């Protein structure tokens, strides 16, 4: 089956530093990837849609200058949390759409990245 | 705008009991997809089912069954003979046929006691 990986799985960083999270589709190409954020014991909220070769589309209320998204290839999207603060601590999950035609509506989720900002 | 409501925040049952998790959705789209995911303590989302809006047939997969009723905009999930391993947070989600991003419900935490 289709596999999406995320790296790192856990990261602890100091306030003011930047953190990059990678989302990779391992066995399929993904022109579209999504980034979600989940606060403890809360639901997943869509942050942005990452499109290969173009700018990401951010949801209302998400600061695009703080959460930089780059989708440079058909298998990789990165989310960079810039100048991280404790309130950015969260679980970040990506998903990727398989557009190979076998099931264009299938979306596969990565295992998530737990970010803790101290 | 799309919306998914899971009114049950937390449910606790004893092993072997049947349990139903409710999901009600709102959308203006005529074509859409509904999903259920399981999120164990590890955090990884486990895909359970996808149903498109044109397919109202109920589905059974082992101890799991789903009841989709378009008339009441509901997509309920039943676990028969629950087991401790079923303990997790369960999310119902909705997507359109365009961008396909998911709108999640708030989740239902299921605790199955031995």
Commentary on this structure:
The complex is a heterodimer of chains A (118) and B (114). Chain A is mostly beta strands and 118 residues long. Chain A is built from no helices and eleven strands. In chain A, the strands form two sheets. In chain A, strands 2, 4, 5, 6, 9, 10 and 11 form a seven-stranded mixed beta sheet that branches. A four-stranded antiparallel beta sheet of chain A has the order 1-3-8-7, with no helix packed on it. Chain A is globular and about 40 Å long. Chain B has strands at 3-5, 10-14, 19-21, 24-26, 32-39, 46-52, 59-61, 64-69, 74-79, 88-96, 102-104, 108-113. The interface between A and B is medium-sized, with 21 and 21 residues.
**Share of helical residues of chain B:** under 10%
Low-confidence stretches of chain A: none
Cα shape of chain A: globular
Largest β-sheet summary of chain B: 6 strands, mixed
Number of strands of chain B: 12
Supply the number of helical segments of chain B.
0
User: In oligomeric terms, what are we looking at?
Assistant: heterodimer
Q: From the alpha-carbon coordinates, what is the Rg of chain B to the nearest angstrom?
A: 14 Å
Fraction of helical residues of chain A? under 10%
Distance between the termini of chain B: 41 Å
Question: Based on helices, strands and strand pairing, what is the structural class of chain A?
Answer: mainly beta
The shape of chain B, in one word, is globular
Residue runs with pLDDT of under 50 for 5 or more positions of chain B: none
Structural class of chain B: mainly beta
Please name the two chains that share the biggest interface, counting residues whose Cβ lies under 8 Å from a Cβ on the partner chain.
A-B, 21 and 21 residues
Q: How many DSSP E strands of chain A?
A: 11
Strand content of chain B: over 45%
Mean pLDDT of chain A: 91
Strand content of chain A: over 45%
Number of helices of chain A: 0
């Amino acid at each position: 089956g289709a596999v999406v990986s995320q790296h790192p799985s856990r990261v602890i960083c100091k306030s003011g530093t930047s953190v990059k999270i990678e989302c990779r589709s391992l066995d399929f190409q993904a022109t579209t990837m999504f980034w979600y954020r989940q606060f403890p014991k809360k639901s997943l909220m869509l942050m942005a849609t990452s499109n290969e070769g173009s700018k990401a589309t951010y949801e209302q209320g998400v600061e695009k200058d703080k959460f930089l998204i780059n989708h440079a290839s058909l298998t990789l999207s990165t989310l960079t949390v810039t100048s991280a603060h404790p309130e950015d601590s969260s679980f970040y999950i990506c998903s990727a759409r398989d557009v190979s035609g076998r099931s264009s509506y299938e979306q596969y989720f990565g295992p998530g990245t737990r970010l803790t900002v101290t | 705008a799309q919306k998914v409501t899971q009114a049950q925040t937390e449910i606790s049952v004893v092993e072997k009991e049947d349990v139903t998790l409710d999901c009600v959705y709102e959308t203006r789209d005529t074509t859409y997809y509904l999903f259920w995911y399981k999120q164990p303590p590890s955090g990884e989302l486990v895909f359970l089912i996808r149903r498109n809006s044109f397919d109202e047939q109920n589905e059974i997969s082992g101890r799991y069954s789903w009841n989709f009723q378009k008339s009441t905009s509901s997509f309920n999930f039943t676990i028969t003979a629950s087991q401790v391993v079923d303990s997790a947070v369960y999310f119902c989600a909705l997507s359109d046929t365009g961008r396909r991003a998911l709108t999640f419900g708030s989740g239902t935490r299921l605790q199955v006691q031995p």
